[in-house]
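User: structure tokens for S8 family serine peptidase, please.
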Amino acid sequence: MKRDPVRRPIRVSVRLALLFLSLLIVAATSARAAGTGDGTAFTHLESMMDAACDALVETGDPTHADYFTARFPDAMTAVNPERAAGGGMTVRSLYLQRPGSDTRYSLEAILNAGNLARIAIESWHALPSGTSVPAAALFVAPNCSPAQAREIVYGTDGLARSLRIVGPDLVTTLGEEPLNPPVPEGVDAKGVTVAVIDSGIAYDRPDIAKRLARDATGRLIGRDFWDLDPLPYDQDATGSPFVARRHGTLVADILLRVAGPVRLIPLRYPRPDMTRFGPLVEFLAEQGTAIATLAMGSDSPGDWEAFKRAVEAHPDILFIVSAGNDGRDIDRTPVFPAAFDLPNLLVVTSLTEGGRIAVGSNWGKRAVDIGLPAEHLIARDPSGRERPVSGSSFAVPIAAGLAARLKSDHPDWRAPELKAALLDAARPLPDEGDRPRIAAGWIDERPARP
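Assistant: Done. Predicted tokens:
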């Protein structure tokens, strides 16, 4: 179950305020220079780091609004109240922008019992359209020295093309992660059409590229409903675009190892505007999608109203969704869309190898249809590196793989027949006794190792 992550990280210096004012004066120029991979944005972020560290020494608060206002009178500042982050940690945030500048900065400090744990400083550039795009980030260690920097490199078409990772010297490139790489050439894969609605997919991974759905010209059939472009590359930037989660590729990796021949339609979910789920599902219907995976959810039913209406309008598509990983009965405390009672919605949760509900996995006698062993699995990330994964998110691709095999054997089956066959294949959980916790029981199916 995917939820909005909250992640985020000074050096004592006496650099003059003029250094930072210089940063602000050249903001418009840096907006054009940043994102080219030349690292110019780090100079400005380092100036902010020094200012924050001085504020920490002089006031005990690296985001002290009065300190920044007095030191940089030409800049507007705003500060968020301190909030608890668990484990004795607190978080303070500061936002800064010079009037008329197209660059804004955010500084987030994490304190542990009043001591600095880490700081993250980000810069964002405004576009003529009125939107802002992320440019660079500097992560700072507790000793007030740079730990690592990251810069998003944009192509001439305005798309973010890669994330450059830079070492503590703010010069040495440690690596580069693709963000919207070109789709490899290829032909349409043959098989059951399965859509993966997630954070996107690493469609450039060779084994995945072979299984993509393509049109007659070889163009990828898929869409990024987050950024509204045709490149749904794997990146959940909810917490920070500089430290993105890669979730969809892990889901797709397991799906491909359970299913027979499938043609994948990758879709990046519409986090900025959940009403886009309406056109997203319409897009799937137009492409003849048989099965769609959705390994995510939230506590708010309002987030999912557009999805619910679209699913009801397309009863032939089987949507397989995760029950969630909150360790609760979702009959009593719902998670959505899993709690919607829809005939073409199959809700799955994660079990241990012995068929018991895994620690942290959700259940529900009415809301959860089946469980599958999805703990301590191995999945490959966008680079092909193997990673251990667990949770109801990964029960979803196992169930989808089984549904795809059924669809391959029975091409005329639609959502009702596919769902009924999976429910019929389930057997009672071994630990339920007289009080069942899942509607139909479990299916003992695990993916082969990569």
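User: Anything notable?

Assistant: The mean pLDDT is 89.
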